[in-house]
Amino acid sequence: MQLTEIQDIHDPQLDLYARLSEGQLFHCFEPAGGLFIAESSVIIQRALDAGYRPFSMLAERGLAEGKGREVIARCGDIPVYTAEREVLEQITGYALTRGMLCAMYRRPLPDAARICRDAARIVVLENVMNPTNVGAIFRSAAALGMDGILLTRGSSDPLYRRAVRVGMGTVFQIPWTFLNLPREQDGGQSQTVRFLRDMGFRTVAMALSEDSISLEDPVLQAQERLAVVLGTEGDGLAVNTIADCDYTVRIPMAHGVDSLNVAAASAVAFWQLGRRQRPNSGTFSSLQGEKAGSPAPPLSLPE
Question: Phi/psi at 265 (nearest 5 deg)?
Fold first, then answer.
């Protein structure tokens, strides 16, 4: 292990953890791909298990020399920067409660059709922009039997630090990708729904409308292949998406409550619609890109 005690909190090598935005991390190695930050030993282990390669690490000194040694040993010959907790708080700007951050290389995303090929239950996020909600949806999807997640380009990146943290690293345990479809015109047919139908799915729009059916309707569980489509916070799904889906579904409510937060609604929907499915484990590594065999280029931070 290359344990390096931090002498200067303004060291450029620490920019990854303190001063670069999520967008700058994403663009570090263009066009080959960028970096993301995994936080906590549990999440770092899950990323390593899925084949992601570490670039460097920032850890509380006591953790690096104690319980964190096993995780660090798995990371190979990378720089590991250490300091006391108070110094780490100065660097990151917040209390590093889990004691360990790891900058990791992104991997190529799989093709959406490949994720859908053997799936029975797919989640689609249409412009879900809040990384906290994205992370929570990933955690529910992985736990409640969904087989994969597709995101439109307007959605938050599941590898943003907050999304990874809230999702407890489940982004590394369920196949996902961004949909690369033509931009939809206002009032035009939903390209997302057309793609899902071409892949053999019946589509379920989670929305409130006059023709909504209950999530408990037995017709839904009777479907062999379902795609559950969730919309952005506040505005929900686009009008043309709702119109083009096979079913519009609502969650029965009490006490005059009209709806749930998208992350909470997703957990309820996944529980009900995924009950006939077994969690699909062991497929992620083959779907989420091949493990890179050659070393990544040296870090060139964007200005």
Answer: -60, -40
| Of the candidates 79, 73, 1, 9, the residue with the CA atom closest to the CA atom of residue 41 | 73
pLDDT digits (tens, 9 = 90+) for 64-106: 888 899 999 999 999 999 988 888 888 777 666 678 999 999 9
C-alpha to C-alpha distance for 92 and 101, rounded to whole angstroms: 10
What percentage of the chain has pLDDT greater than the value 90?
Answer: 61
What are the tens digits of pLDDT across the range 134-144? Answer: 999 999 999 99
Q: Which helix (H) or strand (E) holds 100?
A: strand 100-105
Q: Which amino acid is at 179?
A: L
Helices vs strands, H then E, count in the chain:
14, 12
d(CA 172, CA 285): 9
Residue 232 DSSP code: B
In the 8-state DSSP scheme, what is residue 147?
-
Q: Find where tokens 């344990």 sit.
A: 3
Supply the Cα-derived Rg of the chain in whole angstroms.
Answer: 21
